[in-house]
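Researcher: Re-running this chain for the archive, since the previous output was lost when a drive failed. Same request as before.
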Amino acid sequence: MAPPDDDSDSKPLLPKLSRRAFFTGAGASALTATLSQSVAEAAAAASPAVQGPEPASLSLSINGRPVAVQVDPATTLAEVLRNNLGMTGTKIGCDRGACSACTVWLDGEVAASCMTLAFDARGRKVTTIEGLAQGDELHPVQRAFVENDALQCGFCTPGMVMSCAALVERNPKCTLDDVKQAVSGHLCRCGTYPNVFKATLAAAQAGGKIKGKS
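Model: Regenerated structure tokens:
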């Protein structure tokens, strides 16, 4: 007895593909590959050049003047200021951004230099405690700190001054609460906070900026 007819074996394993569909699919695949390559090339071009581990050339703008150093890409801005440029006004306390003794300005904004890679400061204006005054003329906050005895050991003072000066330049009508907020991240082991508050408010009332300084 003959087995029943089974059409399953006679059906084509693959659907029929027209000439038009074949070339359309091939074109789409080629376009996808081209776009993928273009995206990869663009991403590679946009990626920053890899630095290190050997020392590399670095140009910075410190207190209004250009400087050039050779440093390891893992070096922090605080280390460059102190060790490479001899600008020891910026202090390193905790070295992990918790005490704010290392505070500087980057484009006028306060920043912890111990937590900032020196290479990340490229193209930005760095201001340190050494550059806050103009010649022999102290910044109003510096002068007020002296007049109001707002320091004892002095280790935290440069960072305090930088944060308080940024506040009074930004807000000459700052309040006591504003000052407390500005120094909230600063650790003063000597406990001179009351005089720091007094000095900052006095500097704000005096104008907050060096005459002729914008």
